[in-house]
Amino acid sequence: MALQRPVIFLGPPGAGKGTQAKRLSAHYGVPHLSTGDMLRDHVHRGTELGKKAKPIMDRGDLVPDDVVLGIIEDRVAQEDCARGFVFDGFPRTMPQALVLDQVLEKKHFPEPLVVNFHVDYDELLHRVSGRWMCSVNGEIYNIYEKPPKVKGLCDKCGGKLIQRSDDRVDVVRDRLAAFAKQTQPLIDYYRSKGDLNEIDGAASVEEVARRLEEIVARHGSDGHRPQR
Ligand code: AMP
Predict the structure, then answer these.
(1) Is 142 in a helix, a strand, or coil?
(2) Which of 17, 23, 54, 211 is labelled catalytic?
(3) pTM summary value
């Protein structure tokens, strides 16, 4: 079955949005649009935007809406997004959600399918502050739950494991506070529009993927825009 609606994954850092977004986008052959990855790419390349974003990201705050919206508007205008996409980590504020509504409507996309991932605060802290990633192939480890066989090295390719600078426990607390303050209101917004699907993000990766498949099977092709 085709995925006919853009998908939005809402949820705090560490809820499993990235893992599931990668799987879903690969399964349906649509792009995975992670604003966090796009911003990290700018930081890595040392662009003006990256230089502006880096200190904000390093302290766990949100990058200004106009910066993120600029990146997203350019990205969804590209050819490969014509058949839909999976948003991971966007929108994260009410202004972003309202502009996104306008962009989707202007480009004649159906209403988005929104999935909200819940996970307890302590579990999130544990997941994110224990997260290390292979610098070569991007494989994710958790030093508490899924440690590599050899400390600091990837099981698959022997690449060096690195920790994101904003995954340190003090910054994770600030990222979770930013989520509670700025992103939580979006849950009510999408719920009031009747677009919200809830997922228990504490379940295993396979169980969350199975539940997501059910949601997509049930709602992945509705979301027609009402005639105005
Ligand atoms: P993530 O990889 O999604 O956890 O994002 C990492 C960081 O990038 C966040 O802590 C923010 O500083 C920034 N960021 C990512 N997406 C957004 C967004 N939609 N709005 C504002 N800042 C964002």
Answers:
(1) strand
(2) 17
(3) 0.90
- CA distances, 168 to each of 126, 172, 219 (Å): 11, 6, 37
Ligand 1 close to Cβ of residue 90 (< 6 A):
yes
Helix, strand or coil, per DSSP, at residue 145: coil
Query: Does the beta carbon of 92 sit less than 6 angstroms from any atom of ligand 1?
Result: yes
pLDDT along the chain (228 residues), means of 10: 86 94 93 96 95 95 96 93 93 97 92 95 94 93 93 97 93 95 95 91 95 89 51
Q: Which of 192, 189, 197 is nearest to 9 (CA)?
A: 197
d(CA 20, CA 222): 21
136 close to 157: Cβ distance less than 8 angstroms: yes
Which residue segments constitute the domains of the chain, with CATH numbers given? 7-119+180-219 (3.40.50.300)
User: Rounded CA gap, 46 and 61, in Å?
Assistant: 19
